[in-house]
Amino acid sequence: MHNRRKVLALSIGAAAAPAAAAAQGPRSFQPGALSLSATPSWPPRENFPLWPGAAPGARNPEPLPRSEITGRTGEYHDLWLRGVTRPDVGVIRPRRPDGRAVLIMPGGGYSFTSIRKEGLDVALVLAARGITGFVLNYRLPGEGWVDRANTPLMDAQRAIRLIRHGAERYGIDPRRIGVLGFSAGGHLAASLLTQYEAPVYRRIDAADAQSARPDFGGLMYAVSNMDQGRSHGGSRANLLGPTPDPAMERRYACDRNITRETPPMYIVHAQDDPTVPFTNAMDLFAGARAARIPVEAHFLLRGGHGFGARLPTTESGSLWPDQYDRWIGEVMGRR
After folding, report:
1. Tens digit of pLDDT for each residue in 256-297?
2. Which of 10, 222, 230, 279 has its CA 20 to 30 A from that of 305?
């Protein structure tokens, strides 16, 4: 078994230390509130593994865990993870939890996970609003797993079930557990919203008796489908492989799998996104409207792609954390 903590050779203190400060911070996120140059790390101090042993569909040899810290000296540093063999979840607790919980799914085109910018940083921002954050470090489909296309969804389903099973321990309401995904992580979140009952792995313990249905979902500049030429080519290639199975293309066309049973959806996408076509957000919105489920969409004038929670406060898109916070209250009630 690879010891991923040794492979990363990173201090956990850098990620865990800002949590308390963020939980006390202003409700309007300031881009400078999180250190630009602090060395990012994974996992945070509180974390748990998804699987009691080897993850489903493991092959020998397993991929080698790899990490990459981005950014030059003095700039913001993100942390990209690849070669995830033991997927896990990092927990960021607010100082004053209100019972809500969100499973956060970072993006990276299904070729890496942007674990800091679209994971830990987002959890800190939510913690300032009383929400307990669970950051999912999921397996990447193109790294040798037997059931390639279903591998990320296995991890997402299992994570929700473990969170709900441990609700009392985490001080959360098992009826107010949502998801929030970014880019390819947004596609994974949308996949969970539409495929939470799909039998993609065998039950292994009592936690798997829990429902994997999120109570609400946030989709940030999300990939909505696996259509060639209409979505993000890298995400499609990494999830489905060089010769996609038509059945898998249909399963992961999230915008066309929305039904009356799909949880409420919150969508944010910039019209000038150069990576994931803006039409992906429009298709998700149209699908939700057609199914008559609660949906709110913010189509930003500008913002590009991959902004996480770091848009300048001069741009309207920087308000999304407060809007998401209030939207959850509207669709779930203030229990």
Report:
1. 999 999 999 999 999 999 999 999 999 999 999 999 999 999
2. 10
The amino acid occupying position 70 is: T
87/181 Cα distance (integer angstroms): 17
Answer yes or no: are the C-beta atoms of 244 and 206 closer than 8 Å: no
Q: Is 112 helix (H, G, I), strand (E, B) or coil?
A: coil
How many residues belong to the chain? 335
Residue 222 and residue 187 in contact, taking contact as beta carbons nearer than 8 Å: yes
Q: Is residue 66 helix, strand or coil?
A: strand
> pLDDT digits over 175-184, tens only?
999 999 999 9
DSSP, res 317:
G
- Expressed in percent and rounded to 5, the helix, strand and coil fractions of the chain are 35, 15, 50
Q: How many CB atoms lie within 10 A of CB 66?
A: 14
**319 exposed, middle or buried (CB, 10 Å; 0-12, 13-18, 19+)?**
middle
Cβ neighbours, 10 Å, residue 39: 13
CA angle at 133 for the pair 214 and 90, rounded to the nearest 5°: 105
16 Ramachandran zone, left/alpha/beta (phi>0; psi -120 to 50) = alpha
